Amino acid sequence: MSHGIQNLIDRTRFLAGLSKARGLNDRQLLAQFADGDESAFTALVDRYGGLVMGVCRRVLQHTQDSEDAFQATFMVLARKAGKIAWKDSVANWLHGVAYRISCQVRREKARFRTDDLTSHEPAINPADPAWSELKPMLEIGRAHV
């Protein structure tokens, strides 16, 4: 059989499995995924991808960071698929995980920026001749406030 025909057969089987998986609840999909059915996990990503990405974007407001948090959220789900007694819906669980991961990414980015700022010399150097010219202007501005 040619390589192209085999790809078409594989893709058709995958789509058929995905279509069948869409009729199942989340607990059933996670059980199937834990048993090796990748189309079950794809159905979950299809079902909740918008929710998870929305949370990540609202918290992070940065595209690349949001995509990283999105992937991390579904990686946690994949790792825990066969290890937790799931409810019929994982929407609340995914929302919470996406929020916590996004907050963690935001904290790490803020810490990185703070570390980066403290690792350099201060922006104002009192010995700089430009500072002696700027300081009186700042003091005048402060007196008028």
Tell me what you see in this structure.
The protein has 145 residues and is mostly helical. 77% of the residues lie in helices and 0% in strands. The protein has 6 helices and no strands. It has helices spanning 3-21, 26-34, 38-60, 63-80, 91-118, 129-143. Helix 3 crosses helix 5. It is elongated. The N and C termini lie far apart (82 Å). The relative contact order is 0.09.
Summarize the topology.
Elements: H1 3-21, H2 26-34, H3 38-60, H4 63-80, H5 91-118, H6 129-143
Helix pairs in contact: 1-3, 2-3, 3-4, 3-5, 4-5
This entry's quaternary arrangement is: single chain
Uncertain residue ranges:
141-145
Average pLDDT for all residues: 81
Order of helices and strands: HHHHHH
Identify the overall geometry.
Answer: elongated
Helix content: over 70%
Q: Biggest sheet, in brief?
A: none
Entry keywords:
single chain, 145 residues, mainly alpha, 0% strand
Short characterization:
This protein is mostly helical.
